[in-house]
């Protein structure tokens, strides 16, 4: 996996499932992260080859719920991101999935109480020994690249010190979200503090924060010197952000996303959440469209709502 000059789709819970990753890749994303999956949850799964869809599914034993779905087409660009607080569990999880993905990433930035209380996400930022343990265990035992994604610490010096320590574990790249744990998404990302990390390391750094247009990829790269750029909300609101020719109308992207969700039989909750994020950003959830999305119970209902009934039928017929 090459981390130089890449446009990267950031990990996003509920949003970053297979249809959205495929959509982003279609518009030009070079590397696509899956949503964070907690090691405990993944360890309850078995790997199932789904001949019907042409996917590889990680299915929770007992419930039958699909926890992670991927396909051979994205094998060389998809990154499996996990939430973990234990090297042994992280390794067992990575071993389950590593043959089907391009790289493994550890989330060290999530500030949500669920993550912090479980010792995961941003809780790791204050436990450098545990970071070493998790990353070196993975790197020693896996053939795929291992990376992690951090937030900024209280001072630029602290961030640089941690980044240097992470580099020593042998990670292939480091993604830096230019916000501190207490920052809100509306707070400006501190590109200059990402630049401090870039200047101190020799491995590729992936800069993340406040990329909302194609031109921002170049701006953040210039400001930070980072090897590659990662975008979350800018992609969620319009996946064609990766397109050098400019963004397509969001209504068009939404329809394409619905079609991909039908094609890959996506979880309806994840599909609804992604569409609602789009509506909330560009319009208003209280409008009839938002209310109608809320009422949908299946991805086929969403297909009907967006005039994709014929596509639904065509997909079904092509598989029977
Ligand atoms: C996120 N983010 C995130 N980060 C992560 O490491 N794992 C995850 O699963 C998620 N989930 C997630 C869901 C949603 C809906 C959003 C908006 C964000 C954080 C994300 O990857 C990114 O670091 C920040 O959003 C900053 O980038 P932008 O939005 O300024 O481009």
Quickly give the structural class. Answer: alpha/beta
Strand arrangement, major sheet: 1-2-7-8-9-10-11-12
Helical region count?
Answer: 14
Would you list the SSEs in sequence order as H and E? EHEEHEEEEHEHHEHEHEHEHHHHHH
Over the alpha carbons, how many angstroms does the gyration radius reach? 19 Å
- In whole angstroms, the N-to-C terminal distance is 37 Å
Mean pLDDT: 97
Largest beta sheet, briefly?
8 strands, parallel, barrel
Which percent range fits the helix content? 40-55%
Q: What share of the residues does DSSP label as strand, in percent?
A: 15-25%
Bound molecules: ligand FNR
Shape: globular
Low-confidence stretches: none
Number of strands: 12
Describe the structure.
The protein is of the alpha/beta class and 320 residues long. Helices cover 43% and strands 19% of the residues. It has helices at 18-27, 39-42, 87-97, 113-117, 128-141, 156-169, 191-200, 214-224, 233-237, 250-263, 268-282, 288-295, 299-305, 309-319, and strands spanning 7-9, 31-33, 37-38, 45-50, 55-60, 66-70, 78-83, 103-108, 146-152, 173-180, 205-208, 228-231. It has an eight-stranded parallel beta barrel, surrounded by six helices. It has a three-stranded antiparallel sheet with strand order 4-5-6, with no helix packed on it. The two termini are 37 Å apart. Ligand FNR is lined by residues 10-13, 15, 35-36, 81, 107, 109-110, 149, 177, 189, 208-211, 231-234, 236. This is DUS-like FMN-binding domain-containing protein.
């Amino acid at each position: 996996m090459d981390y130089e000059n890449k446009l990267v789709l950031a990990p996003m819970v509920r949003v970053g499932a297979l249809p959205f990753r495929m959509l982003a890749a279609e518009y030009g994303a070079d590397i696509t992260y899956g949503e964070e999956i907690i090691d405990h949850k993944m360890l309850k799964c078995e790997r199932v080859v789904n001949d019907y869809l042409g996917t590889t599914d990680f299915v929770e034993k007992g419930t039958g719920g699909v926890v992670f779905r991927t396909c051979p087409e994205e094998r060389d660009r998809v990154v499996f991101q996990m939430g973990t607080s234990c090297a042994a569990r992280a390794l067992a999880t990575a071993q389950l999935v590593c043959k089907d993905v391009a790289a493994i990433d550890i989330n060290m930035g999530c500030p949500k109480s669920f993550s912090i209380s479980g010792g995961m996400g941003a809780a790791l930022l204050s436990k450098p020994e545990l970071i070493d343990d998790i990353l070196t265990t993975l790197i020693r035992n896996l053939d795929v690249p291992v990376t992690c994604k951090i937030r900024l610490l209280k001072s630029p010096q602290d961030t640089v010190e941690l980044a240097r320590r992470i580099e020593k574990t042998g990670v292939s790249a480091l993604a830096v979200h230019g916000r501190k744990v207490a920052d809100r998404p509306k707070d400006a990302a501190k590109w200059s503090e990402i630049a401090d990390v870039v200047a101190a390391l020799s491995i590729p750094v992936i800069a993340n924060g406040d990329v909302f247009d194609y031109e921002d990829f170049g701006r953040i790269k210039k400001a930070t010197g980072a090897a590659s750029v990662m975008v979350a909300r800018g992609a969620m609101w319009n996946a064609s952000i990766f397109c050098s020719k400019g963004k397509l109308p969001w209504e068009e992207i939404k329809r394409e996303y619905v079609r991909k969700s039908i094609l890959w039989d996506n979880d309806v909750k994840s599909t609804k959440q992604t569409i609602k994020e789009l509506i909330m950003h560009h319009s208003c959830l209280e409008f009839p469209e938002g209310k109608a999305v809320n009422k949908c119970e299946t991805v086929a209902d969403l297909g009907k709502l967006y005039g994709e009934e014929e596509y639904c039928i065509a997909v079904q017929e092509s598989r029977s």
